[in-house]
Amino acid sequence: MERTMQSFNNSTSAYPSLKQTWGLLFITLLVALFVNLLLLAVNQLSAALGQSNWGQQFLSHSLTFLLTYIAIFVFIIWLGIRKKSRVEGGFAPDFSLPSIVVMLMIAFGTLGLYFLIDPVVELIPMPKFVERIFLELLGDQDIWTVFAVVVAAPICEELLLRGIILDGLLKLYPPKKAIIWSALFFGFFHLNPWQFIPAVAIGIYIGWIYYRTRSLLLAMWIHFVANGTGALLGYVLLPEADQMVPTRDLFQNDTLYAGLLVLSAIALTISILYLAQKLKTETTEAVG
C-alpha cells in the first residue's frame, strides 16, 4: 500500500497517457470487430458447406462468446503489459487484500451504489431492438453466460481498466482527473448509454478504492459484486420475461422501492465514510 502515498509525476515515464488510452481502446474495438467478422465468416462457410445449423449453433453458443471475449482481452492485456513494461521497466500489480471487514464494507457500498443508479438508468428510453439484445444476454442463465459476466468480466476488465490504464493515469495526472477519466473510459467501453451510466458510477467507486489501496483484487471484488447482483436480479426478473423489467417491479410498491433507495444511500454513505478513514489509517501505518 506504500504506493498510494506517491503523487503523480507529470512525466512521460508511465503508460498509458490519456491519448494512449484512447489508442488502446480503439485497438480493442478493432480486434473485437475483426473477431466478430471472422465468426460471421465461419457461419457463412458452414452454410456454404451445408452445415448451416452447426454454424448458427456455434455462433449462438454462450461458450463461444466466453472464449472469444477472453481471447480478445488476453491479446489487449498482453499489448498493454508489453508497452507498460517497456516504459516503466516492469508490470507488478498488487493482489493484496485487506481485512474481511473492509471487504464487506466495500461490498456494502457497492450494493448501495448499484441500486441508487437504477432509477437514473430507467430515465433513458430503450429501443425495442436493444431491449431484445439485453433480454437474450441477461435472460440466458446457463453456466457459461454467468461465468462470463460474474467471473471473466471482473478479471479481464479490471486487469485492463485499472491494472494497466488507471495505474498509468495515476502516475501522470492528479488523482481526481485520473479516476474520472478511467471511469469514463470504462463507460465508453460498454458502447451503450444504459450501461455507460452505471459503468461510470461504479468505475469512480472502483477507481477511488484502487487509488487508496492499489489492490487489483479489490477492484475485481467490487466488479464481481456489481455483476453478480445484476446476474442474480436477471435470474429473478428475466427468466421468462418478454421485456425488460425494472428493479422496482420486484417490490410492486413505490413506498418499498423508495425505502430501498434510502437504505442504499445510507449504505453507500456509511461505506465511504468508513473506508475513507480505515484505508487512510492502513496506508499511513504502511508508510510509517
How is the secondary structure organized here?
Elements: H1 18-48, H2 52-60, H3 62-88, H4 100-122, H5 128-138, H6 143-172, H7 175-189, H8 193-213, H9 216-237, H10 254-287
Shape: globular
Let me know the largest β-sheet. none
Residue runs with pLDDT of under 50 for 5 or more positions: 1-6, 281-288
Helix and strand content put the structural class at: mainly alpha
| Terminal-residue CA separation | 11 Å
- Element-by-element helix/strand order: HHHHHHHHHH
Question: For the residues shown, what is the average pLDDT?
Answer: 85
What's the number of helices?
A: 10
Strand content: under 5%
What's the Cα radius of gyration? 20 Å
Percentage of residues assigned to helices: over 70%
State the domain count. 1
What does this structure look like?
This protein is mainly alpha-helical. The chain has one domain (8-287). It is 77% helix and 0% strand. The chain has helices at residues 18-48, 52-60, 62-88, 100-122, 128-138, 143-172, 175-189, 193-213, 216-237, 254-287. The longest helix has 34 residues, at 254-287. 27% of the residues are buried.
Give structural attributes:
10 helices; 288 residues; disordered N terminus; mainly alpha
Q: In a nutshell, what does this entry contain?
A:
The chain is mostly helical and 288 residues long. The protein contains ten helices and no strands.
